[in-house]
Amino acid sequence: MKLTEEDVRYVAKLANLDLSDDEIARMVHDLGSVLEHMEQLAGINTDGVDPMSQVLYDAEETATLRPDMERAPIGNELAVANAPAAGNGYFKVPKVIERQ
Amino acid sequence: MTHTIQSIREGLLAKKFSAVEIAREALAHAERENPKTNAFLLFSAERAVAAAEQVDKKIAAGEEPGPLAGVPIAVKDVILTRGVRTSCASKMLEQYIPPYDATAVERIEAAGALVIGKTNCDEFAMGSSNENSAFGPVRNPVAPDRVPGGSSGGSAAAVAQLSAVVALGSDTGGSIRQPASFCGVVGVTPTYGRVSRYGLVAFASSLDHIGPFGRTVRDAATMLEVIAGRDPLDSTSAQAPVPEYAKHLDGNVRGMKLGVPIEYMKHATGETASLIHRAIDELRALGCEVRDISLPATDYAIASYYIICTAEASSNLARYDGARYGFRSKSSATLSDMYTHTRGEGFGPEVKRRIMLGTYVLSHGYYDAYYLKAQKVRALVARDFTNAFQSVDAIVAPVSPFPAFKIGEKVADPMSMYLSDIYTITGSLAGIPCMSVPCGATSDGLPVGLQILANHFQEEKMFRLADAFERLSRHRS
Q1: Which chain B positions have a beta carbon within 8 Å of A45's beta carbon?
Q2: Residues of A in contact with B360 (CB under 8 A)
Q3: DSSP string of B387-405?
Q4: Are the beta carbons of B30 and B163 closer than 8 angstroms?
């Protein structure tokens, strides 16, 4: 299956990524060649194999939990310190009216 | 500086030099060398000297200064340092000042280490050559017209050019081992979960690791001892106790059973293959029993890896939206424009490519054929290793099909760059510990690394083998 320019524009929209026409053309080519390689996955039998989404090893059932103890948060001032725009301890963004 | 962790400790305790002197010497060397390689993005002189003063105070008071006392360390710029800019080599985070330290950084500093600077890398750790940095490529200290490998190229170069004694890097599909191999240093990817990922900027969470670089196996092992262990702030960090890795490096590997994967060696050609074969012969001479093993899912690993890592990346990098931190586009009239323009202007080409690929494989209609299938293949790759480790203690293999390539040689063809990761991504998918240890150089003088892989939490075996091999290579050269 060949990747089209339309496919690339659709995926860019899903990814909230603004791409120039040149970038779109390059993506059609680059992603196309990578996806072509991915096609070979169809050649390996995975019947009855459970998908692996994490590296797992033997551990107690509660191994991923931490004690329920209070920790001091980093604080509002530090939390917004890296914001491109902030005010009154909040993040400032352009006015939200409607999303096209 | 040609110091090791041990030689710094001895010098400090014998009052031959102070930690502050070591810090200043390392910083001066690193700043002098940097124009040649671009290994560092930033120097943290104030922080290093302040840490050194603490070490000197402890020594003066007769207190134990810690296992990394006075050791100059370089930290990859995807690992957070409180108050010290962490850019991930991306325009997106060019001004980002982390409000907290990564657990690994906290631990090395608590052990007396001196963080001298942040190292260059591929943008968001995505790449195999360090050419994807928004702040220019890193040059290989051994051959300046060649890449240092990636993505932790700056950390490998900093250690190779004697600017730092050890360094922290991160590895998702080979980003520690491959640059270690290209620059002729030791690089370790521990078992997944062995080292906390808290404060490591996420690329592909189920594959990301923090690990050490050093010029000796002992230094890398000592460093891993310090950073390994459970961290309540990373729920995937393992509870398993941390052994004293460096203590048992006695050079004895007699009777150790080693496997050589036939699927890896069948493609290996040229000088890299000859050097790996020589290394295997030498290990045999040390008393190891070497046998061929089969890892049949290997041929499918690259496809599996690049689907999983890009899918996770597309999700992890959704956070860079211009709202809370990092870059925001000037053309942000509406919220929607802010998102798309910020991301379009802030990310470099490789990051965009991976976000696109990841979004595609997760999109409606393709999830089962790509993402789910890739996860099943990942299970098969992991199963291959489980089966292999029933009959061998460790696996030895190449790190990369070829030594350091020329800057610019592979940038035009992303797929050929991805294919070069074949020997490292299998271990990453399985989450097993693996490392690169230098095993010689080509006729052009380009370093080649031998990869050693062991079963989950068997870092001790891996280090023992690497150390025995290193003793022998030192003897040879």
Answers
A1: none
A2: 7, 11, 31, 35
A3: HHTTT-SEEEEESSSSSPP
A4: yes
Query: Chain B 104-163, CB below 8 Å of chain A: which residues?
Result: none
Q: B76 an active-site residue?
A: yes
The one-letter amino acid at B87: S
Q: Which one-letter DSSP state was computed for residue B201? A: P
Q: Does B262 touch chain A (CB under 8 A)?
A: no
Judging by DSSP bridges, how do beta strands B394-398 and B166-171 pair with one another? unpaired
Q: Which residue of B lies nearest to A78 if distances are taken between CA atoms?
A: B99
Q: State the residue for tokens 């060019």.
A: B94
Residue type, B288: C
Contact between B70 and B112 under an 8 Å Cβ cutoff? The reply is yes
Residue B355 has its nearest CB partner, among A17, A50, A53, at A17
Nearest C-alpha of chain B: how many angstroms from A26?
10
Residue A92, domain member (yes or no): no
B156 touches B79 (CB < 8 A):
no
In a domain, A94, yes or no: no
- Residue B75, beta-bridge partner list: B118, B168
Residue B244 lies in a domain: yes
User: Least CA distance to A65: which residue of chain B?
Assistant: B235
> From the candidates B90, B129, B175, B314, which is the catalytic residue?
B175
Q: Residue A4 belongs to a domain with what CATH number?
A: 1.10.20.60
Whether a cis peptide bond, with omega within 30° of 0, leads into B151 is yes
Out of B76, B118, B410, B461, pick the active-site residue. Answer: B76
Q: Residue A37: inside a domain, yes or no?
A: yes
A62 assigned to some structural domain: no
Please indicate, yes or no, if residue B89 is contained in any of the structural domains: yes
In this structure, which amino acid lies at residue A85?
A: A
Q: Tell whether B359 is covered by a domain.
A: no
Tokens of B219: 């230094």
Q: Per residue of chain B (477 residues), what is the pLDDT tens digit?
A: 899 999 999 999 999 999 999 999 999 999 999 999 999 999 999 999 999 999 999 999 999 999 999 999 999 999 999 999 999 999 999 999 999 999 999 999 999 999 999 999 999 999 999 999 999 999 999 999 999 999 999 999 999 999 999 999 999 999 999 999 999 999 999 999 999 999 999 999 999 999 999 999 999 999 999 999 999 999 999 999 999 999 989 999 999 999 999 999 987 779 999 999 999 999 999 999 999 999 999 999 999 999 999 999 999 999 999 999 999 999 999 999 999 999 999 999 999 999 999 999 999 888 999 999 999 999 999 999 999 999 999 999 999 999 999 999 998 888 888 888 999 999 999 999 999 999 999 999 999 999 999 999 999 999 999 999 999 987 765
**How many domains in chain B?**
1
Binary contact (A83, B325; C-beta < 8 A):
yes
Whether B25 is in a domain gets the answer yes
Q: Which domain holds residue B62?
A: 5-248
Nearest CA to CA, how far is A57 from chain B (Å)?
A: 8
Any chain A CB within 8 A of the CB of B341? Answer: yes
- Across the interface, of B232, B306, B379, the residue whose CB is closest to A50 is B379
Closest Cα of chain B to A36: distance in Å?
10
The boundaries of the domain holding residue A14 are: 1-43
- Count of domains in chain A? 1
At B63, which CATH number? 3.90.1300.10
